[in-house]
């Protein structure tokens, strides 16, 4: 499979939560640091970098400022260094409960404190020097075993998770990281949790929770007995092995999970490459040959479709569409035009893709009619986590409304019908739009919402009123945006 951005390891960004449940924050004014923030936002987001000297020390760079955390010999701390110097080098000392202790490498003192009274001068470790790692990336991704170079996916027949996939194809390759009780759970696409003995369970019990460790930019998952998840045996079954230190077998990459979609043409049949390289609407069921990985170019906002047979859709002679391209080019890019419950595709020749009488797709139409419209269905997000510019979408306590600025997230369930999605939350209640554009989550009947994939990794959600969902100044989810841009775009 060509790379072309298909397999992109996520840059691990995280927050550090202290013993009083406050996040380490880098302020723009004076480049000061404190631990006063109750939630994880841009100022509380950090990136771990290896020491350029190839030692065991690491660097903490503020994602918000682009500057490095440093500690002076007298214990003063700041985040003002544009380039990492000697005082920026820290040792990460994982504790038995999974929390981190940060020790200044040149000075040997420990970093901690509360609110604006942070220092790196402690000679012993107390609760004030303990930090919990909270990932700041979107929690839905693919997991790649570093040693086996295989993707983890749900094996329903064996009722297990295994690292044996050559490509992260289909819904079973989606994993959701759930942050709970300062630890992480691995949630499968059917909403079960991976226990350390390899079993899948319905509740996030203690043996289904893991602490995260970073090693050379990779992730390791440590269970409550101090052992690490690894692929085991010929099948690559994912469970805790014998090792109490992470080696290559225990390391994983998190990769971005691009949308995978199926398309249904006007003849009510699925677009497919089952019968060869010609892209045709001729199948009655959706399997791998009917699934396409969709990527949106950040600059042009046009998209590509990558097939399970290893080729991009591309425009060929006389307007035909074949899944044969191994590289992204102008002829593999299609403009998406959203038409309510349907979508039209415009090719690089300026013409619309239509379904011919024999079911084959071709870009030969100058106008959009029934044969140029398709149903586009997202298949690899049966459970959905949404993030706005300000934070994640989460149920508001004691209310039927939804917050859009939280550092924790709720997982919502998606269903699909005739080009529209229905969103179900906690307790099985459906999302619906109430008075004055409010969005509520306790509906007895589903309301249809339209998803429009507008940017890479971001979608707009359109309510029945025609307005788009956005996060408001109050932090509440509302359906009152006129355009699918800015706060009306959601990372999914």
Automatic annotation (TrEMBL):
One of its GO terms (molecular function) is protein-macromolecule adaptor activity. Belongs to the fascin family. Residues 21-133, 142-254, 266-376, 390-492 form the Fascin-like domain. One of its GO terms (biological process) is actin filament bundle assembly. This is Fascin. Its main location: other. The keyword Cytoplasm applies. The gene is FSCN2. It comes from Cebus imitator (Panamanian white-faced capuchin). Coiled coil: none annotated. Keywords: Actin-binding, Cell projection, Cytoplasm, Cytoskeleton. It is found in: Cell projection, Stereocilium; Cytoplasm, Cytoskeleton. GO terms for cellular component: actin cytoskeleton; cytoplasm; stereocilium. Transmembrane segments: none annotated. It comes from the Eukaryota. Pfam families: Fascin. CDD domains: beta-trefoil_FSCN2_rpt1.
């Amino acid at each position: 499979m060509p790379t072309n951005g298909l397999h992109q390891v996520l840059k691990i960004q995280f927050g550090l939560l202290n013993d009083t449940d406050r996040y380490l924050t880098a302020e723009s004014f004076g480049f000061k640091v404190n631990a006063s923030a109750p939630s994880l936002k841009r100022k509380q987001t950090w990136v771990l970098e290896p020491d350029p000297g190839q030692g065991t020390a690491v660097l903490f760079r503020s994602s918000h400022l682009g500057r490095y955390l440093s500690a002076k010999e007298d214990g003063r701390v700041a985040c003002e260094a544009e380039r990492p110097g000697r005082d920026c080098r820290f040792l990460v000392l994982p504790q038995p409960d999974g929390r981190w202790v940060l020790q200044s490498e040149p000075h040997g003192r420990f970093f901690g404190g509360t609110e604006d009274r942070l220092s790196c001068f402690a000679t012993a470790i107390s609760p004030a020097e303990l930090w919990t790692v909270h990932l700041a990336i979107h929690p839905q991704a693919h997991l790649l075993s570093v040693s086996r170079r295989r993707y983890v996916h749900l094996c329903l027949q064996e009722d297990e998770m295994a690292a044996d996939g050559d490509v992260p194809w289909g819904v079973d390759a989606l994993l959701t990281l759930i942050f709970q009780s300062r630890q992480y759970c691995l949630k499968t696409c059917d909403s079960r949790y991976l226990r350390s003995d390899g079993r899948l369970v319905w509740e996030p019990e203690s043996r289904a929770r893991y602490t995260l460790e970073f090693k050379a930019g990779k992730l390791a998952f440590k269970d409550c007995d101090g052992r690490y998840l690894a692929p085991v045996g010929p099948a690559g079954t994912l469970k805790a092995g014998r090792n109490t230190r992470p080696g290559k077998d225990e390391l994983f990459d998190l990769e971005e999970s691009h949308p995978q979609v199926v398309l249904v043409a006007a003849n009510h049949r699925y677009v497919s490459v089952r019968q060869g390289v010609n892209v045709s609407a001729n199948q009655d069921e959706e399997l791998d040959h009917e699934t396409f990985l969709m990527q949106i170019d950040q600059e042009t906002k046009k998209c590509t479709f990558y097939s399970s047979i290893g080729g991009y859709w591309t425009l060929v002679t006389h307007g035909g569409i074949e899944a044969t391209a191994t590289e992204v080019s102008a002829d593999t890019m299609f403009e998406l035009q959203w038409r309510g419950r349907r979508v039209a595709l415009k090719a690089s020749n300026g013409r619309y893709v239509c379904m011919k009488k024999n079911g084959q797709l071709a870009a030969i139409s100058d106008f959009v009619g029934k044969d140029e419209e398709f149903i586009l269905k997202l298949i690899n997000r049966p459970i959905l986590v949404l993030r706005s510019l300000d934070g994640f979408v989460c149920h508001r306590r004691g209310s039927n409304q939804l917050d859009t600025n939280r550092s924790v997230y709720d997982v919502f369930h998606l269903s699909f019908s005739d080009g529209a999605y229905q969103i179900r939350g906690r307790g099985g209640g459906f999302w619906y739009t109430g008075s004055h554009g409010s969005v509520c989550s306790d509906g007895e009947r589903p309301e249809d919402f339209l998803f429009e994939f507008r940017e890479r990794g971001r979608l707009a959600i359109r309510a029945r009123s025609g307005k788009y969902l956005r996060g408001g100044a109050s932090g509440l989810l509302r359906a009152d945006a006129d355009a699918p841009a800015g706060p009306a775009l959601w990372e999914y």
